[in-house]
Structures are given as structure tokens and as C-alpha cells.
Amino acid sequence: MxxxxxxxxxxxxxxxxxxxxxxxxxxxxxPAAPAPSDNTAHADHGGANLELWKDPDFxxxxxxxxxxxxxxxxxxxxxxxxxxxxxxxxxxxxxMDEAAVLLEKSRxxxxxxxxxxTLANIYFEQDKHGQALAAYEVAVKKHPKFRRAWRNLGxxxxxxxxxxKALPAFRRVxxxxxxxAATYGLMGFAYSSIGNEVSAESAYRMAILLDPETLDxxxxxxxxxxxxxxxxxxxxLTSNLIAKDPSRGDLWxxxxxxxxxxxxxxxxxxxxxxxxxxxxxxxxxxxxxxNIYINEELYELAVSSYIRAMQxxxxxxxxxxxxxxxxxxxxxxxxxxxxxxxxxxRVHGERLDVxxxxxxLKLRARHAVADGADEQEARILEEIVALDPLDGEALIxxxxxxxxxxxxxxxAFYYERAASIEAYEADANVRxxxxxxxxxxxxxxxPLLRRAQQIKPRESIQKYLDQVExxxxxx
Length: 475
Known about the structure:
By secondary structure, this protein is mainly alpha-helical. 71% of the residues lie in helices and 0% in strands.
């Protein structure tokens, strides 16, 4: 806390109008904008991460919010003035806990709202948000037109991520004629956080009008454009911001998302590569770059991006990489898929869950089939069944493998196991029936085909069933 400002605050409070009678209600036109401390206990909320909280000017304004504006603030009695003198001396000596204790003892239902407000400010700076909220609410209840208290109440709700409650407080400030850049900007942030982008844009415009230098408000409006799918507007605004500070990776990333929205993936990829050269890539941005490259059929670049993402954040979710490996396999890019699977295995290893390990094994089995390596396919499929004995797909594939190798009894065994799993019963019965038909057992195949049609009717299977019935009757 800036001691000069605190001493100024003390002087201001001491010279404010004092009266032993009830306090009058007077309000200002040029309120200061308070800011909480940087070390928030609620850093998981989006509102706690705004650059605004760290801005020295904003913090200076917060310190100035201790200063009573004599024409508009609740008045204090002579006794309360003496108490505030002691409180502000403690604050200037950075003895915040002692100041809070003194205020707690001094405040009551009849005391000035200034005491509640000052106590709330102390709690706010100490990140005691629950206690600060309670004290601010008492202040505005005692003095309903206390603009500084309304503004700080809104700010603390933003810091806590409670945007629905922040908005009425900010609207009250504006109704009382106290709309400043910070109030409008945080109002825009709150509106955007609850999905009201039209109101968010309007609030951000007012904030930028009053304070064209603060980047938070322009970034907020660019994000609002993006959420409204006004991608061209978002690109235009971010281009202006990038021209002023090309080292800001978040600006390039926001613009990249807007290019994706405009279906300009190559422009988006250029932005994302530039972010990587700036050393500001994230796990998400590299995965996004990989997705763009895979859609553009630039498979080597795609795999490189996914691998860089895993190396950047080894504990990240491997879902994107696994999905990409499936796409690569389906498109015949087997070597690229194998490279990606090897890296997923290396980076994530034992952290992979059963479903993810099965996905990898199934992809490797497909690669083995493509290479004509039947024995490798069988070994992989057996690993899958060992992981999950109820994997009907793997059991059916094992049955097909055994059938190709002439092990018909073993194949029938796998098909029967798969048929015992409800989701795979129809397909397993069809495969089993085909096996029986290949052995000339047409009559034995019919019940299996009929059951398959009962569970999962298909025109092609019905035609096959009719053919088998004709042959069975002719024998």
C-alpha cells in the first residue's frame, strides 16, 4: 500500500464533514476505481486473471478509494472521526489486522457506512473475500447510494467468478452516475462470462471510450466479436492490437481462432506457427495446429505438432493425439500414425486408461493387417481381450483371424463369446453363421442369422439369410 496515498486518505477522512447528528447522504461525480491485491485465493476464476489487477495505476486508484469525497460520502460523527484517525494510522503503518480489529469493535447498526466500507477494503486486500462481501453489503444497506462500495462489491464478485451478482452492483454504480472505465470494462467482462455478448460489447465500447489504453477492454471486445461469430471484426481489432505489440501471443491466438471461424485454416496455421516461434505455444494451440494440418492432409506437419504438444505438456490429455492417429490410419497414413502412437506410448505410458490402451492396440492391429502380419495382429488382439474380456469387437476380429488360419473351432469359440455381449450379438452371430456356411452347415447357420435380423435388421443380411434358406431346403 502506498504510504503517501494512505496518509492523504487519513487527512481526507479527518477533514470530511463531521456531525453528531444522523449522517447525510452526499455523493460524488468522480469516483476512484479500487483494485484488489494480486495474491488472490480464487485464481481459478477467470476474473482473477485480468491484467487490470496488476496495473500500477489501477492499484494506485484503489489506494485512493480510501479517500472520502466530502461532498458525496456518508458523514462520520466526531467519535467516529477519532476512531478513523487511529485506523488510518494503523493502515499507514501496514498494521492491517490491527486496523480491522479496531473497525470491528467500532462498527454497529448505527455507525457510519464509512467504517464498514473501510473494513471491507482491508479484507478485500487480504483476500478475505467472504468477510469483505459481508462488510460491503452492510455499507450499501446503510447508505444505498454509496457508489464506491457498490463498485468494490461488483469487483469482488468478479474476482470470485460470481458474475451474475457482480452485474447488479455495477449497474447500480452507473445508475448513480459513477460509470468509469473500470466499471464499464468489468461489466463487459461479467456480461461476456454469462454469455450476454451484445451487452458485453456495449460495455466494452464505453470502457474503451473512457480508457483507450487498457488492453483488457479491447481484448474483451475482440473475444465478444468472436463469440458472436463476427470473425472479420475480431480479426480487424486484433490486427490493430498486434500492430502495436506483435509479441503478444494471446493476440495471435485469438486471431487464429477467428481465421478458423472464417474457414481460412492456412492463415490460422501461420498465426499458430508464429506463436510457437515466440515461445508462447500452449498444449491447446499445438493440438489445434495439428488438427489444421491433418485436415489439410499435411500429415508429417500434423504429427510434428501433436508430438510438440505432448512434449510441452506431458501430463496433458492424449485424446487429441489418439483421435488424430485414428484419422491417419483411416486415411492410409500408416507410418505417421505409428510414429504418433509410439510417442503417445512413450509420453503417457502407464497413465493411459484401459479404453485408451485398447484404442492404441486396435490401431496397431489394423496396421498389422495392412502389413500382412497376421500373427502380430492376433497377439495384439489377445492383449486387448486380456485388458477387457468384454470387448466384442476384438473377439470378433480374433474369430476372423482364426477362421483365416483354418482354426474353425477356435473361431466359433470367439464368436460365441462375442455373441454373449449384447452390443455385439448380432454381428457375432452373422460371422458365426458365415463360418458354418463355409463348412456346409446351412441349417445350423439359419437360427443365428434369424436372431441377428431380429436384433439388428439389415437388408444385406436378409438377402444372405434368404439365400442360405434356399440352399438349406434344396439339400
